[in-house]
Design brief:
mainly alpha
């Protein structure tokens, strides 16, 4: 069945769009997405295909996820998200375990962003959050991104504690994609939970935060407030 879904994904791809995506997702030598292969399929098309093949078995999903083609991995993850949403407790446990044992193939920011919140974050909503702290200290870039993006699920329930703790761990991270992700989640704390809690964090850490992280966190603030926090940044 996975060959049928692969063929369907391929038929929507275009060389022109593939070239654009390969540049956008930094697939060149030394870049974060080095070697990733794009077919040039749009996200709406991938989502539609995933919904039509939601019945795939976990072994078929694994075969799809282990593919070098980016869109195959994306569709595999979308199917997992849809199955998780519809699954019972046992099925959700199976998908969560499978996800964390296959992070090697969840290896670009869009793959993390469509899945981490809905699988890892949702699963850990009322459970021990220690797996996220282990991920936050991983040497693997994408596991670190999973750790912070997964907490979006908590923010939608107005629970910022874990996000703030993970953000603190990732303050000194060297990668721009972590700076952007942490700044995004800090911004969401201010928008969804408590502006005061975000400001308290910024009051303490703004001078130490990477500039990109700080700018992302400040996007919903007034110009005056942005200038105040940016003036604290150490150079």
């Amino acid at each position: 069945m996975e060959e049928k879904i692969k063929e369907e994904i391929r038929q929507y791809g275009t060389p022109e769009k593939a070239k654009i995506l390969q540049r956008f997702f930094k697939t060149g030598k030394g870049e974060y997405g080095e070697g990733d292969i794009f077919l040039g399929v749009s996200m709406p098309q991938q989502g539609s295909i995933a919904k039509r093949f939601i019945f795939l078995s976990i072994s078929e999903i694994e075969s799809l996820l282990r593919s070098p083609e980016h869109e195959f991995r994306m569709v595999a993850l979308l199917i997992l998200v849809y199955q998780y949403e519809k699954g019972d407790t046992q099925k959700q446990q199976e998908i969560y375990d499978f996800y964390l044992s296959h992070t090697q193939w969840i290896n670009n920011w869009d793959l993390v962003d469509v899945s981490a919140e809905h699988i890892v974050g949702t699963f850990l909503q009322e459970k021990d959050k220690s797996p996220l702290f282990h991920l936050a200290q991983s040497a693997f870039l994408w596991e670190r991104r999973i750790s912070i993006i997964a907490t979006f699920s908590f923010l939608k329930k107005k629970k910022p504690k874990t996000t703030l703790a993970i953000a603190e761990i990732l303050l000194s991270d060297s990668h721009d994609l972590i700076h952007k992700a942490v700044g995004w989640m800090l911004r969401e704390i201010g928008k969804r939970c408590s502006t005061e809690e975000e400001k308290e964090f910024l009051d303490h850490y703004a001078s130490k935060m990477p500039r990109t992280m700080l700018r992302y966190a400040l996007e919903h603030f007034s110009e005056e407030e942005r200038k105040k926090y940016l003036s604290k940044k150490e150079y």
